[in-house]
Amino acid sequence: MSDEKDKLKQKHIEKLQERQREASIVRRIVLVSLIVIILAVAGVGYGVYQHIVGAIGPVDENDDEIVEVTIPIGSTVTGIGNILEEHNLVSNGDMFRFYVRFRNESGFQAGDYQLTRSMDMDEIIEELKQGTIYQEYELTFTIPEGRWLDNVVARVADETNLTEEELMEKLEDREYLESLIDRYSILDDVILDERIRWPLEGYLFPARYDFVDEELEVEQLIETMLNRTTEVLSESGASGSNYSYHEILTIASIIEGEARNDEERARISGVIRNRLNISMRLEMDPTVAYAHGEHFERTLYEHLDIESPYNTYRITGLPVGPINNPGAASIRAALYPEDHDYLYFFHAPNGNVYFSESFPEHNRAVQQYR
């Protein structure tokens, strides 16, 4: 009996020892795994750190050769970054833009600069803030937001040496439009849709334009405005949107036509998104006016019956194209709509706008505040 107890005791001891050995092995495996993970994370972090340091550091600290660079009037941070990258003065133009935003830098000056590839990003930024505009403007004019393309053309013709006839002829020249599509990523064949009134409606960015020459070429003007639209879309993050550039500008143009102030834009954009998500007609009054080619003080029921790919009271989804040339605030609102459940809004004569989630609620707002 005593022998059996001793044997059982011995087996118990052996099991405990076996478990201790297994636990020791598991602990070693876990420890090694943790070390591997820590080293991997550290390696990735170090790699990212090295990439950032390399991007903001000199392209070649031993290259002191002077590089002549011209920063044109009206250049954005994106445009400046691209110019610096083209001249191999920074390794990445996008990193220059991100770094400028991180540092909250501003005040860059147009002009001619002498830079070197041995300069780091901080030195280049400081140099670009010290420049002076190299030539007085000979021609300056402003295109307001939300204007139809024919109004933009009339405004340009009033302010420049160009005529409405030559502008419209170029804006409707299919061969020229196809060449623009080949050169501009924001353009595609959709602008050549025969249902679209003016192919570049929505793409001629409304802004102040300054030119050093008093005499303009038609192509120079159009492409300067397209460049500005491209820069605004890029800086707004449009390339990451689920919408195409054409759809973004179409939504932005409706927001531009509807909003009375910047505070309303994102909320109106949310209404548009909510309606699109449930395949509900947009029923936006500015699209009706554009369909008629006539501005109305007030949209009446008789205006709603027009058959047009722009009339959102008759079609489901977006109109065939933009209905005006929207500004940066409306483009940003189109990309970043406010999250809410509103499906309706009403601009009252008192200047306020009332948003509603249901049609009965909307009707009550109309009856109360009209």
TrEMBL record:
Described function: Functions as a peptidoglycan terminase that cleaves nascent peptidoglycan strands endolytically to terminate their elongation.
Family assignment?
Answer: Belongs to the transglycosylase MltG family.
Task: Give TM segment ranges.
Answer: 29-49
- Could you list the residue ranges forming a coiled coil in this record? none
Give the top-rank taxon of the lineage listed in the UniProt record for this protein: Bacteria
Site, as annotated: Important for catalytic activity:
E258
Q: In its keyword annotation, does this UniProt entry include Membrane?
A: yes
Gene3D superfamilies (UniProt xref): Classic Zinc Finger (3.30.160.60), Endolytic murein transglycosylase (3.30.1490.480)
This enzyme catalyses: a peptidoglycan chain = a peptidoglycan chain with N-acetyl-1,6-anhydromuramyl-[peptide] at the reducing end + a peptidoglycan chain with N-acetylglucosamine at the non-reducing end
Keyword tags: Cell membrane, Cell wall biogenesis/degradation, Lyase, Membrane, Transmembrane, Transmembrane helix
Under which EC number(s) is this enzyme classified?
4.2.2.29
**What is the main EC category here?**
lyase
Could you tell me where this protein is found in the cell?
Cell membrane
One Pfam family assigned to this protein is YceG
Regarding the membrane, this protein is recorded as:
Single-pass membrane protein
Name it.
Endolytic murein transglycosylase
